[in-house]
Q: What sequence folds into this?
């Protein structure tokens, strides 16, 4: 699990989440095993700590402050990246240790390749069938194909336009495409201004979290070497 990655690497960590609810959930989970300060960027707060949780939107706005301070970056709901929408958040961070978590990974080959570039190669995956009955309730998947008459099609397209407009306003003009951007590379800090847990800079790997459907990550054995 991601908490094990933080404990194993013993380096400063930035955790990115899509929503304020997940920000609060992560802060609570961290508080159960980490007795140091936990920084927060999101929901009206801006505070740095050796372990910091930030929403995607706040990280995008403040990456100039966050990007060079952390040796490990954990990306929850990583499938939100890879399509050009806010990929700069991951490209502007220089953390060489990266772990992406997703229960709904993108199946598109180009998106998968972009995620590998941003986070590292796929290291663990479980299919829904393997999770059913243990982590998930037993399920049957049914697909219904519906034919829309002209009036229903018009109503559908009108509602879809409302969603697309809200989506663009939330994510910005780059979100609907897959624009290419050059990534930023650099050496990992062994200690940021926010401070690091004891043992920062030590080499380490981490185990996978069995409950997640898919995860990406890189593990480097070195004291903060260059590149990702």
A:
């Amino acid at each position: 699990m991601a908490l094990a990655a933080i404990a194993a690497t013993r380096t400063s960590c930035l955790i990115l989440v899509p929503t304020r609810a997940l920000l609060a959930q992560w802060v609570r989970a961290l508080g159960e095993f980490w007795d140091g300060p936990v920084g927060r960027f999101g929901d009206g707060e801006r505070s740095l700590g050796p372990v910091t949780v930030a929403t995607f939107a706040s990280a995008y706005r403040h990456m100039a402050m966050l990007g060079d301070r952390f040796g490990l970056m954990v990306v929850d709901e990583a499938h939100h990246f890879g399509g050009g929408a806010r990929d700069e958040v991951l490209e502007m961070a220089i953390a060489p240790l990266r772990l992406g978590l997703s229960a709904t990974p993108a199946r598109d080959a180009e998106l998968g390749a972009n995620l590998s570039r941003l986070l590292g190669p796929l290291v663990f995956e479980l299919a829904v069938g393997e999770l059913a009955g243990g982590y998930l309730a037993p399920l049957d998947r049914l697909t219904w194909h519906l034919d829309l008459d002209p009036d229903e099609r018009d109503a559908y397209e009108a509602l879809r336009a409302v969603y697309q407009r809200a989506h663009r306003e939330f994510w910005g003009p780059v979100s609907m495409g897959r624009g290419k951007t050059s990534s930023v590379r650099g050496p990992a800090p062994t200690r940021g201004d926010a401070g690091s847990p004891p043992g920062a800079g030590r080499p380490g790997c981490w185990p996978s979290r069995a409950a997640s459907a898919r995860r990406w990550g890189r593990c480097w054995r070195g004291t903060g070497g260059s590149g990702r």
Summary: The chain has a mean pLDDT of 76. The CA atoms of residues 86 and 219 lie 24 Å apart. The chain has seven helices and eight strands.
